[in-house]
Design goal:
- The protein has a domain of about 70 residues: SepF-like protein (Translation Initiation Factor IF3, 2-Layer Sandwich).
- Strands 1-2-4-3 form a four-stranded mixed sheet.
- The chain is globular.
- The chain has four helices and four strands; from the N terminus they run ααβαβαββ.
Length: about 120
């Protein structure tokens, strides 16, 4: 790479891999206070069938926020409707909130006392 390449940029096209910065997310895990008990947790779940609903509902009844991957449910409309009906019912039951996220691949269900804003912050 010559001096002019540094000033004007190289004529070589950057690949997609070059345009993204690789992150070591492990450096962010294990923050201070990790061993201290919390009043609320954010849980992540993947749901494939109606049989997975009771575990998720228990977490919401226990006051936790649950982010649910519903990608596999999209293959079966009837199962999708049943599961979403269950999740909506539990959010109403605890006076919580529910919202779809990420091209409807994820659903966030929150318990009593938590509301999900429908306003985006930046990145319009």
């Amino acid at each position: 790479m010559g001096f002019l390449d540094g000033v004007f940029g190289s004529k070589e096209k950057a690949t997609n891999e070059d345009s993204y910065m690789k992150l070591d997310l492990q450096a962010y895990e294990g923050a201070a206070g990790e061993n201290e008990p919390a009043t609320m947790y954010v849980k992540v779940a993947s749901i494939n069938d109606i049989k997975d609903c009771p575990k998720i509902k228990d977490e919401i009844y226990n006051g936790n926020i649950v982010i649910v991957d519903i990608t596999k449910l999209k293959l079966d409309k009837i199962m999708f409707d049943r599961v979403m009906g269950d999740l909506r019912a539990v959010s109403r039951d605890v006076n919580g909130d529910i919202i779809g996220l990420g091209d409807q691949r994820y659903v966030i269900v929150v318990p009593t006392g938590v509301r999900i804003s429908r306003e985006k912050i930046g990145g319009y």
